[in-house]
Amino acid sequence: xxxxxxxxxxxxxxxxxxxxxxxxxxxxxxxxxxxxxxxxxxxxxxxxxxxxxxxxxxxxxxxxxxxxxxxxxxxxxxxxxxxxxxxxxxxxxxxxxxxxxxxxxxxxxxxxxxxxxxxxxxxxxxxxxxxxxxxxxxxxxxxxxxxxxxxxxxxxxxxxxxxxxxxxxxxxxxxxxxxxxxxxxxxxxxxxxxxxxxxxxxxxxxxxxxxxxxxxxxxxxxxxxxxxxxxxxxxxxxxxxxxxxxxxxxxxxxxxxxxxx
Length: 261
Prior knowledge:
Blueprint: E1 3-6, E2 11-15, E3 24-29, E4 33-40, E5 43-48, E6 54-58, E7 63-65, H1 67-75, E8 79-81, E9 85-90, E10 95-100, E11 112-115, E12 118-122, E13 126-128, H2 135-143, E14 155-156, E15 159-160, H3 162-172, H4 181-184, E16 189-191, E17 202-206, E18 212-218, E19 223-228, E20 230-236, E21 240-243, E22 248-258
Antiparallel strand pairs: 1-4, 1-7, 2-3, 4-5, 5-6, 8-13, 9-10, 9-12, 11-12, 14-15, 16-22, 17-18, 17-22, 18-19, 19-20, 20-21, 21-22
């Protein structure tokens, strides 16, 4: 029988295999839910409700919830903290801990949210998930991550990869992207020329084998914001991304997709 879980910690690593030494391929942030579809000892194979991405989570980092509670949380309005770091407190224990920008707060109202028999309180500023995508809002959200270090599998301001970055930005603005760049490249409408691209469009880049390996979001003035070493802004043209510091192209443009409009 399928079980269900809630991420009740700041960020939980999702691993490729059932081992602490295994590669981290994803992260779950506080407030996210998942199905538990298999078990290997203390490791649970989890399928995220946001994007159906699968990986292993240690049992010690799972807050189990019922099927009805899973459905309620997934259907609730999405609220997000406005700050890069906010403190949330669990009422019963009075234990406060940090949650990160991009963490959903399903059903949050009047400064609190309930998960099963737990109640969490947050005093910081929050924002609702956008009902429609506005390019200027996408850019504003994206720029909050500037300087965040690159981390394979990461999805937070303290470590994020290229597709985790674009996914987080679009999620807070009401559009669900797949987890990996190759999945995101299958969404939206293809633009033929880079001259057709505008703020909020996604640019994808490939390697010598033609595999999509990188993604970033086009912003104003022929610039792109993307996670490469850190979340940064570089120039983009029909060849790809040009890094002024290195004086060379770092990524070869493959295609451009419009997710909005």
